[in-house]
Amino acid sequence: MIIKYPSSVKKGDTIGITAISSSANKDKLKVASKNLKNLGYNIIETDNTKTEYKLVSSKGEVRAKEFMMLWKDEKVKHIISARGGEFAMEMIPYLHEYKEELHNLPPKWMQGYSDTSLINFYLTTNYNIATVHAQNLGDYAMKKLHSSLIDTLNMVNLSENEEYFQESFSKYSKRDDSEDVEAEYDLIYDNEYKSMDDKNNHKFSGRLIGGCIDVIKTILGTPYDNVNNFCKQFDEGIIWYLENCELSVPDLYRALWQMREAGWFNNVNAFLIGRTFSKDAVGEYTYLNALEDSIGKLNVPIIYDVDLGHIPPQMTYINGAYAEFEYLNGKGILKQKYI
Can you give the C-alpha Rg of the chain in angstroms? Predict the structure, then answer.
């Protein structure tokens, strides 16, 4: 088996919380940890969930060290990032110094999105470790947990060869940037997936890889860029899932163009593109122009406005998992299997 799936996470197991990027919202950290404890999990936190340093929780070296403390702790079965942020890339050179441990120690689930998705992306593309693109810890501070959060906990409880279905949600919310404790998603907008070719149905399959474009592009061309080697392992091809947080439309085109020209999309079967609030045209150049001029030239299905990213709710995407996706009349079904 090429992909290394961590062992399943059950009630009574320990979840480790660390601040991969920005410092934690202390109130949300407290409530989220309490909610997870009430669901039956034990919680431990690294020291950097309580510190703050220049837009991040701590220096990159400290963040890598505290992450690896959880990785090496046999009690910890699942690691969740406290929140997203700006500079997760600072910890990668230091994390790379632990490459022998990351290759050889038993894998464990690493979860988060936004800036955290870069760390997931690095772990999967360099070590073939399955990782979890899903909510950071702050979302678990809701008064009543949304079903998408329960999906994630169910999915890290699966074993090899098991599979999980998710259906597109009927409604979506505004941008998820609330700092209010116990705030729930304000599900006010009708949800509709769209296809770049205007067809009303598509079916495709492949291995999942992706994350937040804003941050995963920063690894391109660095010593930590193993993306082409990762993708070419899979005869079944790749489904790239991507979301844009804050890139302008021209910046989005430049980022996707660079990823394409670097060969990242050479083995692609299809794209799933998340909803974005950064769609404003610049002059006559539109959001759809950016998608068409970059990945549209690859002549594979592109489904956009999917449940992914900073406009909740979002599905859970397991980097490295085998996936089958069906798009029909504005809706989507995603099946993932741990093979």
Answer: 19
Q: CA-CA distance, 15 to 12, in Å (whole number)?
A: 9
Kindly report, residue by residue over 110-139, the tens digit of the pLDDT: 999 999 999 999 999 999 999 999 999 999
pTM of the model: 0.96
4, β-bridge pairs: 129
Cβ proximity of 20 and 63 under 8 Å: yes
Beta-carbon contacts of residue 282 (< 8 Å; ≥ 6 apart): 248, 249, 250
**b/e map of 52-64 (b: 16 or more CB within 10 Å)?**
eeeebbbbbebbb
Q: The tokens of 36 are what?
A: 């997870």
3-state secondary structure of 122: helix
Nearest CA-CA partner of 287 in 243, 240, 328: 243
Question: Do 195 and 305 meet the contact criterion of CB atoms below 8 Å apart?
Answer: no
CA dist 210 and 117 (Å) reads 8
**Helix spans in 232-325 (H):** 249-261, 287-294
Domains of the chain in sequence order: 14-161 (3.40.50.10740), 167-337 (3.50.30.60)
The token pair at 110 is: 């690493």
Question: pLDDT tens for residues 301-314?
Answer: 999 999 999 999 99
User: Cis peptide before 313, with omega less than 30 degrees from 0?
Assistant: yes
**Is the separation of the CB atoms in 113 and 134 below 8 Å?**
yes
Question: Could you give the angle at which helices 287-294 and 249-261 cross, rounded to 10 degrees?
Answer: 10
Distance CA 306, CA 300 (A): 16
Distance CA 291, CA 271 (A): 10
Partners of residue 182 on adjacent β-strands: 142
